[in-house]
From TrEMBL:
Coiled coil: none annotated. The chain crosses the membrane at residues 12-35, 41-59, 80-100, 106-131, 152-172, 178-203, 229-247, 267-286, 293-313, 319-346, 367-386, 406-425. The lineage of its organism: Bacteria, Bacillati, Bacillota, Bacilli, Bacillales. Keywords: Cell membrane, Membrane, Symport, Transmembrane, Transmembrane helix, Transport. This is Glycoside-pentoside-hexuronide (GPH):cation symporter. It is found in: Cell membrane. InterPro entries: MFS_2, Na/Gal_symport, Na/Gal_symport_CS. It is a multi-pass membrane protein. It comes from Evansella tamaricis.
Amino acid sequence: MYEEIRTREKFSYTGGLLGQNMLYNFMAMYIMFFFTDLLGISPGIATAIIVAASLWDAINDPLMGMIADKTRSRWGKFRPYLLFGPIVLAVTTILCFIQFNLSSTATIILVAACYILWGMSYTLCDIPIWAISSVVSKNSIEKSKMVTLGKIGGTVGTAIVTVGSIMVINAFGGEREASAFTITAVILATVAAMMMVTTGLTLRERIMPAKTVTPIRENIQTITKNKPLMLLMISLLIVNLINGIRQSSQMYFVIYVWGDSSQLTNVGISLIVGMVFGMAVTPKIISKFDKKMVFIAACLLGSIASAIPFFVGGGNIPFALVFLGISFAFTGVTTIVSASMLIDAVDYSEWKLGFRGEGLIFSTNTFLTKLSGTLARGIIGIGLILMNYTEGQAVTTTTQTGFSTMMYVIPAICFLLTMIPLFFYKVTDQEKQQIQSMIMNKYGKTS
């Protein structure tokens, strides 16, 4: 028998990811607008700041993963970062939304520094809060349930900011008042930090790290010599494009295809309902069926659901929203299955190579998420060029077909492409039994 994860741990973990995603989405939604319209920074310089920070993120994600893997403390391997990291993240979030009233050059230097520090502090929390899910239990099903709760919490956090943040901003002066953003940032950062620190205080690490620290060269082998993990990561890179492309194109889509920007709210509702439903039912499904086959089935069905509104329905909005919701549900399934398979990859690494490397594995996953977002924006940019798109142009057959393709067809293709690496993903039932036996024997039956 193994020690079950306590109910308060489950609640605090869900809350921690809810808080983290509130801050991430608040930053994603408003930072560019704040830089350009309230601080007076040119769009080109603002874009350069954000791109430069993203490039640095590509470097510091794996670095943070290796640092976490080397951490040894009386609180565990990942908990220490959840005790002080959220406070740093809260402070840098607030700093990014302050109008300092300095010269143009000084403002650019300061906001660049603040935004880069925000990215680093986000990574400081992001890697540990996901990696800790792999050490809270010795049972793979229990760990999968924790990942599900975390993903659901993240989706709820996204929904709260998407719907509620503009209400708070308007309550304190509206989108043209810098102080309104500052106050909203203070409120969100304070609440989010408290929820994330509570996660660090509440969770227990039941799989403790080895006393010896794995050298960096061997730690990197966690990925290079773990074939199932490499194949899974290729699939993750592709499947993450689906929501990235939809998020980047949905505003254009509702304006030029449906002719009503207010429909953006309904697209958001279909995303939230579909994703939460898909994520909620997945743990039960993967407890009865092979994870790889569930992943492949979700991709196949998700592709069909994505493509149907493009070929059927004649622009009927309720019809399209239903199938968007269904495709989002299958995206939710892939989200949970892939996260559960990442946890399995950690156990596989320990069985095959002798060390776990949770930090590096989960840091690589967050890097892939960021890379997918960058690729998604690039794909949308290429699409706009091919359509000869200009701001505020009249609706044409070309724009309607182009944005419909982005919303329906390209995600359907991505679903299908995601399946290809999975066909080569092989971990036999015998290996799975040996891995689970190794975990139970090595770490004992009780904590």
